[in-house]
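Quick one, tokens below. Sequence please?
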């Protein structure tokens, strides 16, 4: 199993070298970059990684890099390094989704703990995306009518109520329900609800 890769983006070579040495000694694989543009050019949409970036750099700074990753839909856990007086910028980064910010100078163990946290968050996010993709795929073969039935069933409606709302017979609802269970491979209604939630379906209001 590949070790977690930590990307470091900082225009200061001494900072890159010291952080690389520290994180490598803690068991991480480290890939340093001297600028945000260099990182964007070299990044290969890898999983199990995180990014540690300085907030102030020539050209594209840390906030702009974070925004660019968002535009490219790259879901990479980000840790922001800040200098004195940059806390308001760091708060902006946190609001935009950064995992943590470290105010220089920071303790070695603080960085290691922050990186571990970011990698854990990344693993959870990756697992969530995988579940969502699998759920969406399992719902992809449903007909429009089956999807209508599914939404009402997972909203908590009985077969009779579903039949009334869709102006079909309860027997037809049963048939559709059987097809839905077969196509999604859900064992029961609870399993169907989990699939619908993972796929991000919007449930209709009950009542």
């Amino acid at each position: 199993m590949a070790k977690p890769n930590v990307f470091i983006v900082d225009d200061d070579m001494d900072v890159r070298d010291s952080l690389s040495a520290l994180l490598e000694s803690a068991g991480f694989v480290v890939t340093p970059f001297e600028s945000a543009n260099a990182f964007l050019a070299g990044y290969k949409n890898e999983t199990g990684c995180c990014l540690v970036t300085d907030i102030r750099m020539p050209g594209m700074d840390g906030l702009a890099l974070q925004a660019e990753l968002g535009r490219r839909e790259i879901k990479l856990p980000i840790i922001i390094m800040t200098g004195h007086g940059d806390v308001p910028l760091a708060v902006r980064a946190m609001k935009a989704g950064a995992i943590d910010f470290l105010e220089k100078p920071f303790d070695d163990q603080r960085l290691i703990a922050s990186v571990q946290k970011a990698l854990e968050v990344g693993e959870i996010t990756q697992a969530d995306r995988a579940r969502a993709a699998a759920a969406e795929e399992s719902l992809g073969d449903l007909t429009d009518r089956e999807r209508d039935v599914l939404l009402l069933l997972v909203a908590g409606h009985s077969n009779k109520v579903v039949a009334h709302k869709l102006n079909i017979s309860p027997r037809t609802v049963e048939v559709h329900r059987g097809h839905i269970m077969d196509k999604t491979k859900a064992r029961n209604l609870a399993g169907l609800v989990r699939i619908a939630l993972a796929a991000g379906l919007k449930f209709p209001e009950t009542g």
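The chain is about 55% helix and 10% strand. Strands lie at 5-9, 29-33, 49-54, 78-82, 100-103.
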